[in-house]
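Suppose a colleague, Dr. K., hands you the sequence of a protein chain of 174 amino acids and asks what its three-dimensional shape might be. Before reaching for any lab equipment, you can write down a predicted structure in token form. Begin with the sequence itself:
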Amino acid sequence: MAEPEGTTMTDETTTLQQQAMVQEFLDGLVSAFGIEAKAVPVAADDDSFEVNLAGENEALGLLIGPRGRHVVALQEVAKTMLQRRLPGVRRARVRVDVGGYRQRRRQALEAYVRELAESVVQSGTERGLEPMNAADRKVVHDAVNEIPGVDTISVGEEPRRRVVLVPSRPPAGA
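The predicted structure, expressed as tokens, is then:
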């Protein structure tokens, strides 16, 4: 039975089918580039899934790219492929990782932000971070939310949007 127009496919079977399509697509893509890597399913739920490209570290560096830009591009191409092959799917929730890069990036960013937040708390001076993508900004906001005495704000316009760590202001009337 076809999905009604304008709806999204959200059952687990459809998600697994989409995951298989992305695996096949990524395997073909890396093969076309002559890179030895294999798309491996990592996780899937009712409306999203993750695929990791695993292989030799040297080859994975090419797939990661500077500051993870190639990983982001691979994810966007995979999403576009799904949307074109499955016209009823408006929003494909797919995450592509390469060799666990995203998790390592998250951990490194959280550690860096904690150090920077301590500096902001001690000095009382705001500190800006480099421009980053929305996923990295979310990691920063989430990490800082757990640290008393410091808040975050996002400033700028895409693609130069960045996070600034600012000392917390005491509540009004305190």
